[in-house]
Amino acid sequence: MKIVEPEYPGGRSNEASLAEDLRILARAFSSRWRLIAGIAFLFVVAGFAVVWLSPKTYTSSVSIFIDPRERGLVDLGVAPTGMGSSSQGADGALVDSQMAILTSRSVLGELVERERLDTDPTFNPVASGPLADLRGLVAAALYGTDRDSAAEVSPFDRALAGLQKAVAVKRVDNTYVLDISVATGSPARSAALANALADIYLSNGQSAVDNSARESAASLEARLAELGKVAEQSQRAVEDYRRENGLLDTDGVPLAERQVVELSSQLVSASVAVEAAKATLETLRDNGVGAFASETASQLRMQIGQARAEENMLSDTYGPRHPRLVRAQEQRKALENTLNAELARVLAKAEADYKSAVGQRTALQAIFAKSQDSLAQSNAASVKLKELEQTAKQNRELFDSFAVKAKQAREQISLPTTTARIISPARPAIKPSAPKALLLLAASAFLGCVAGFGTAWLLYLVSGPPKRRRPVPVQPFRRRHLAAAE
């Protein structure tokens, strides 16, 4: 086919101006505007047909807020609940991790099992007829001898693969909000699957915290038994060492120290008693026993004075051998003998008290010296005792700490500790998300215009501008008819 070069009026050269080029394009397109409009119209009609015949897809989204702040209802350091600490570091990793968890096989697999998607034709279609035969041929061409292995995919895996294509998780700008979208052919089904996926995610988060607390409690309780034995052994070692070295104490004071204090007080009292007994004895010896006044001696002296007065009165009245005078003299002598015996007893008692006080002081001094030696030994042994007590105290504190943490771990199970929550549940979509009618029609119109203009230009290059038809001569009868009509 011979390509006709466009004719340029006036025989212009290839360096024609832009205006002339535009006039050529306008001439090429305006001469075939019906063709351009027809092609564009056909493309638009095809776009309408595609929109009308394509299966509709409805997308529903649920919004989840991931709070990076820790929520510890129970103070348990071994099982932290928070993961984020800064908006530039760990928090971003936290949100990305939650997005990966939402699309993980475990979460989506649980959704497949809960909603029984392995029996849903939407996610596990069963092909039959010519389409199935065509797919078999394609599989044979692609897999060859491995065709049987490729066909052995379980319904669960097929449904899981379909669900992974239908689920989309994205982060809303630079926030802690995640949008979970599910696209299916039913608005209600999409909303139900989106809400179910969010519920599974929150349940799995709580289950993970509960399992962590349960494992921590089991580990702490297993360690707690060992720590209890260690604490008991260390405390028993303290008591044995204290008993073997005489370091028993009462009210926090060592027994040896308490004995020294008590013996010191007793020794002071004994010394005071010795000095008092010595002073009494020296007074009796220096001033005579007669100077010692007692109730018995005073009564005897009074009786002796009365007896002497009666004796003088009788000696003035009777003779020296008168019986009454003799009895009075004998009575006076008896009272004087009794007084002398009383005074001798007092002196002997003072001497005995002095000797007893001295002996008691000497015994206390010997005991006090031994107690001081024992205290010195106990002070030397108390250094080792303090080490044992410190070890026992540390073991007891460690045991108590583990006991508290084990109890807290048990109490934390089933407590709401997850920080994620649903802020916007999914609702059935009002209009389909695919196919996008406006975009598809706009693309069809654009492609139709491109195809129409391209066809018109190609025809212009091949055959040149269309030739104008000559005017048909009007018959005289028709002229008269037209004139009459006018």
Automatic annotation (TrEMBL):
InterPro entries: Bact_polysacc_biosynth/exp, LPS_length_determ_N. It is a multi-pass membrane protein. The chain crosses the membrane at residues 33-53, 437-462. It comes from the Bacteria. Signal peptide: none annotated. Residues 21-113 form the Polysaccharide chain length determinant N-terminal domain. It is found in: Cell membrane. Residues 217-244 form a coiled coil. Keywords: Cell membrane, Coiled coil, Membrane, Transmembrane, Transmembrane helix. Pfam families: Wzz. GO terms for cellular component: plasma membrane. PANTHER family: FERRIC ENTEROBACTIN TRANSPORT PROTEIN FEPE (PTHR32309:SF13), TYROSINE-PROTEIN KINASE (PTHR32309). This is Polysaccharide chain length determinant N-terminal domain-containing protein. It comes from Pleomorphomonas carboxyditropha. The lineage of its organism: Bacteria, Pseudomonadati, Pseudomonadota, Alphaproteobacteria, Hyphomicrobiales.
